[in-house]
From TrEMBL:
Domain of life: Bacteria
Family annotation (Gene3D superfamilies): alpha/beta hydrolase
The protein's name: Alpha/beta fold hydrolase
GO molecular function, a single term: hydrolase activity
Species this protein is from: Flavobacterium soyae
Domain (AB hydrolase-1): residue spans on this chain: 11-109
Amino acid sequence: MLYSKIEGEGKPFIIMHGFLGMSDNWKTLAGQYVEAGFQVHILDLRNHGRSFHSNEWSYEAMVQDVYEYCQANQLTKIDILGHSMGGKVAMLFAATHSDLVDKLIVADIAPKFYKQHHQDILAGLNAVDFSVKPSRNDVEAIVAQYVSDFGTRQFLLKNLYWKEPGQLAFRFNLEVFNNNLDAIGKPLAENLVFNKPTLFIRGGESGYILDTDLDEIRKQFPNFKLETIPGAGHWLHAENPKMFFELTTEFLKG
């Protein structure tokens, strides 16, 4: 079963992180959604955070995990939000289990194919040799040689934890990602359609959702609207959480 944090009372609202992320990334916003009257479920997807590791890693497998989570927690008539990789999971879940989903929010990802673009990040993560028992500062110094952006490094290093006294490790399943990186870029099957209300939100400085993608999005999500957060990049919910929260709650309560 997926690891989750459940807070609040009200309509079930599932939130899913992106690649190399975890539920903790959504902790602050989750608290705001609780105050807005939702029962919030922030998940760690398989091979991420505190959830189980598996050699099987695909969008279909992740959707099945979320379905089993909903069944175990007796969740029906939910709203669902996913960022990046989690957004693709959310799209596929909504399209294949539309009876369970009322509203869908997709943060900075389209249903299209994306070519590999995490090579530098993975090179930095793979350069860390945990057998020599590095400190947190040592790990950051190594990753910094490959990942120059401070914010991205801090996002990645949230995955560090003490596996045992004196021994750090990453929470995510780096080996599986190395062996199956193509899985993350796969598109949503073109025959899948979700007809219910859908909100796509993109960062104004992010290139993940282009104007040229909108016709294709409309074919699969005919009841969609698009909002743009000016000045924000791919981590739009972290860069402008106030506007992200306002746009999403207006949509959910509308």
